[in-house]
Each structure stands twice: as structure tokens, then as C-alpha cells.
Amino acid sequence: MVNRKELNPEASPEAAFGARLRSAREARNWTQDELALLVGYSGRHISAIETGRKPPTLRFSRSVDAALGLVGTTESFERAWGEIRNGSLLEGYPEYLGQESRAAEIRMFEVGVIPGLLQTSEYARAIEASAVRRGAITPEQASERVEFLAERQAALLRHIPPVVIVVLDESCIRRPIGGPATMDRQLASLIEFADEPHTVLQVAPYTMAERRPFNRLVNLLTLPDRSVLSYVESQTHGHLDRETASVVPLVRAYHQLQAEALSQAASVAMINEARKGTP
Predict the structure, then answer these.
(1) How many domains does the chain have?
(2) Which residues have a Cβ under 8 Å from the Cβ of 164 and sit 6 or more positions away?
(3) Residue 272's pLDDT band (boundaries 50, 70, 90)?
(4) Residue 149: inside a domain, yes or no?
(5) HEC states along the chain?
(6) Is pLDDT above 60 for 83?
(7) Which CATH number do you get for residue 218?
């Protein structure tokens, strides 16, 4: 075969995905164009996936599974895509997401941006569009991130929903994302969130200054067995912790944060002021 590129499946998860795709295609004696016709992509796209020049997307993986009869199996390409996606997340975060979907109580603190669970789709798309412009992700990956966020939010809509307690640094509501209309709808959504019977929303105002105990994202989950785990992040690292000795100080600091933050009523008033452009 002319210009056949040798593949190294050990080079990366994307390379392993591509090598598997080529192997599965050739086992059926299909050309790249024949597979492309079945999955709704071009032969050039199939070639780019097989050689690792393009990362696979969720939609592509599901289309391949349908063409190969692998939907819902342990050998599915959707499953392989999930492993790639989780591998690109910060350490500890994939496990955190699994625990979040069954937690009895979720406590969050965030600086700078509205946390994912409270983001509107427009707000989330604005953030991902910025990442596309920077060249950090592809448009397809941006769409998948927004879709995945919606699935994560939907997982909390249970018969008995978890108690969700959120403290936002004031910067979260002051930092404009996506333009005035997008930001206004996001702030309106926060007010609706605060009105739910199983939620608490507070703002940690700038006036807390050095008394604010956290300077980065902190998430605390109380599981059905009443055990508590924490997840904290820096720019490049994530850490999931179950050890009582290190989780309890975070729980104590979170209580101090809530005591110093504005009440929910005062927080909603500040958000309404931010909607009106009041400093």
C-alpha cells in the first residue's frame, strides 16, 4: 500500500485508538473511504484519526461503534474515547466526577468563574470558545465539553437530589464572560439556583480580604455513608483525598468561609446589583 504509515499504538492513547481503528477496518477489508461512508466522515478524516493527527470525538466514536457493531460493549470505541478524555483530566478528577453523581451533599468554593454545575450552556460555550481560539482544543472537543457538562448537571436531577452548597468569590459574579446578555442570563440562573429548596448560595465578598481561607477551587462531597472526600485543584494538578486527617481541616475551613461570607439573601442582592451594573 502506497504511503502506508506505520503506527505505534504505545505512543499515546490517541495513537492506540487510531491503531485499533485501522485494525478493525482492515479486518473487515474496508478502505478508509468505505468506513468513512458508513460513519458520515471523509476518508481523510479517518486517515487523520488512524495516524493520530486528529483526536477522536465522542460523536465519531459512537458512529464507529454503530458501524462495527460495538455499541455498549467493552470493546467499544466510545469507551476508548472516555479513557482518552479522562486521561486528559487532572489527576483525581475522573474519580471525583463518579462520586459527585451519587453524593448526598456537595459543597463547592470557586474563584474567578462560575463552577461547572451552575453554568448555563451559553456561559460554558463562551469559555470553551475561548479555548478554541487559543488553540488549546478543537471545536469538536469544545462541543463535547459543553455536552458533558450538561450530562453532569442532569445526573444531579434525582428523586432525592443532593444538598448543594456553593460559596462564590465575588470575582465569579463580577468577571464578564461571553458578553452582557450571556452574563445576565448566568446571573439570573444563579438567583434561580438559590431559590431551590435543596441549595444554598453565598458570595464571599472582596472585603473578606485575607480572611478568605481558600485561594482556589475546593470541592467537598458527603457520600451516602456519611464519609467525606475532598477535591482541590491548582492550575496543573488535582488531588482527591479521603483521609480524615487532611479532609477535616478543609471542612472546618469551609465552615469558617460560610460564616464570613454574605448570607444567601445578601448574596442574591449583590448578584441582582451586578446584573444592573451596580459596583
Answers:
(1) 2
(2) 105, 106, 108, 117, 156, 198, 199, 200
(3) very high
(4) no
(5) CCCCCCCCCCCCHHHHHHHHHHHHHHHCCCCHHHHHHHHCCCHHHHHHHHCCCCCCCHHHHHHHHHHHCCCCCCCCHHHHHHHHHHHHCCCCHHHHHHHHCCCCEEEEEECCCCCHHHCCHHHHHHHHHHHHHCCCCCHHHHHHHHHHHHHHHHCCCCCCCCEEEEEEEHHHHHCCCCCHHHHHHHHHHHHHHHCCCCEEEEEECHHHHHHCCCCCCEEEEECCCCCEEEEEECCCCEEEECCHHHHHHHHHHHHHHHHHCCCHHHHHHHHHHHHCCCC
(6) yes
(7) 3.30.870.10
* Separation CA 244–CA 2 (nearest Å): 60
Q: Is the domain of 97 the same as that of 200?
A: yes
CA nearest to 254, candidates 231, 226, 224:
231
Do 106 and 66 belong together in one domain? no
**Domain carrying residue 172:** 91-115+159-275
Q: Is residue 234 part of a domain?
A: yes
Can you tell me the distance from the alpha carbon of 254 to that of 220, in angstroms, rounded to the nearest whole number? 9
| Rounded distance between C-alpha atoms, residue 69 and residue 103, angstroms | 35
pTM summary value: 0.72
| Cα–Cα nearest to 128, from 107, 110, 113 | 113
pLDDT in tens, 110-165: 999 999 999 999 999 999 999 899 988 788 888 888 888 888 898 888 889 999 99
